[in-house]
Amino acid sequence: METRVYIVRHKKTGKARMVDAPTSAAALRHVMADEYKVEVAKAREASLLTSEGVAIEDAGVKAQGSLL
């Protein structure tokens, strides 16, 4: 598979990283893996986070004003 170099830029800080990857999604996953971990929510954890004001976000819904 062919790759290209993507610039992945942090929206708030402007810090940029260059990643050689087959797709922009793969480049983003590579960068995000350094800072985030994804796991299935257990009911107790989800309940606790909800009580702390953490909302459930729907990844299938585009943000208002989004260009995607």
Mind explaining what this structure looks like?
- The protein is of the alpha+beta class.
- Helix content is 26%, strand content 18%.
- The chain has a two-stranded antiparallel sheet with strand order 1-2.
- β1 and β2 form a beta hairpin.
- The radius of gyration is 16 Å and the shape is elongated.
- The model has no long low-confidence stretch (mean pLDDT 91).
Overall 3D form: elongated
- Average predicted local confidence, pLDDT: 91
Strands, total number: 2
As for the number of domains, it is 1
Uncertain spans: none
Count of discrete alpha- or pi-helical segments spanning 4 or more residues: 2
Strand order of the largest sheet: 1-2
- Beta-strand content estimate: 15-25%
Largest sheet: 2 strands, antiparallel
The share of residues in helices is 25-40%
> Strand pairing plus helix content: what structural class?
alpha+beta
**Secondary-structure element series:** EEHH
Q: Could you give the distance between the termini?
A: 25 Å
- Our Rg estimate from Cα atoms comes to 16 Å
Explain the layout of strands and helices.
Elements: E1 4-9, E2 16-21, H1 24-32, H2 43-51
Antiparallel strand pairs: 1-2
What structural keywords apply?
26% helix, two-stranded antiparallel ribbon, alpha+beta, 68 residues, single chain, 2 strands
Quick take:
With 68 residues, the chain is α+β, with helices and mostly antiparallel strands.
